[in-house]
Amino acid sequence: MPHFDVHFVMEPIENIFAITAGPCGPEFVRCDQFETAKKPVLPNHVAADFRDVDAVVPAMGNHLIDLTGPEFQEQPFTHSWIHGVYSGRIIFKEVMLPRALLLSKPDTGVPIFDTHSPDRSASRCGPDSGDPVRRARRSGLRCHPSEIRCALMNNPG
To answer: How far lies 83's CA from each of 53, 59, 108, 126, in Å?
Structure first.
């Protein structure tokens, strides 16, 4: 299905681009980087439904996918969140949006998915994390698929 991937990068881009092509895995990355990308994320840093599907991609990292999403339950594909992982850390968050949705110019948004557990006490970064997606969500931001920008969900005034 034609779609757009929107990445919210939380790591210096040069570190992500340093993940290079090689002979390992289905997406062909360097073997040492494949192993590093497969290191598990702490359970309180990713929602329980996200799974490692061996999608370690050069210049990206590993992709954790929510296999309970509607597109995997014989429902229409409307959007999907993916977590990019390398060395046991989330390095990007990605929303996949179908091209047809964008062409329809919907007057709606895609809520930013909060991957962190309700138990913030166990979080590596704590409740006031510098994570830009969490910070945006607390500020009432959402990813607006018709314009691929962050827009205010609620009037903060």
So the answer is: 12, 14, 22, 19
